[in-house]
């Protein structure tokens, strides 16, 4: 009788050890995730990067115009050279992973709203409002660029 109990307990212990070992080994396999983007997707997204980087580089021109209080030039620059910015950002956002897509669209919307506020500040010749919104544009733009996968 004691021998049967010992075998039952031993079998139960072996089953528990086997279950534990199998469950631990499958956790490491589950943590390996597929890459977010295929090489083709990265290539497609990277097509827009030079234009976006050019827009980002040209922000220094906008900053100079604001600092010099050249309000007509500020409005012209926002509607002219930066006019395609929102469209380019939306094209990139459409190609991002679902996790990043919403954040990218929100950043694009915020940047556009801030540019509208800068334009309004230029019409009002409100230096403080223009500078505040310009800083916000830079932060949001940099955040957007960080969402783009690297080649």
UniProtKB/TrEMBL annotation:
Signal peptide span: 1-29
Top-level lineage group: Bacteria
Keyword Thylakoid (UniProt): yes
Keyword Signal set for record: yes
Keywords: Membrane, Signal, Thylakoid
Compartment(s): Membrane
Family annotation (Pfam families): PsbQ
InterPro entries per UniProt: PsbQ-like_dom_sf, PSII_PsbQ, PSII_PsbQ_cyanobac
Main location per the UniProt record: membrane
Protein name per Swiss-Prot or TrEMBL: Photosystem II protein PsbQ
Record gene name: psbQ
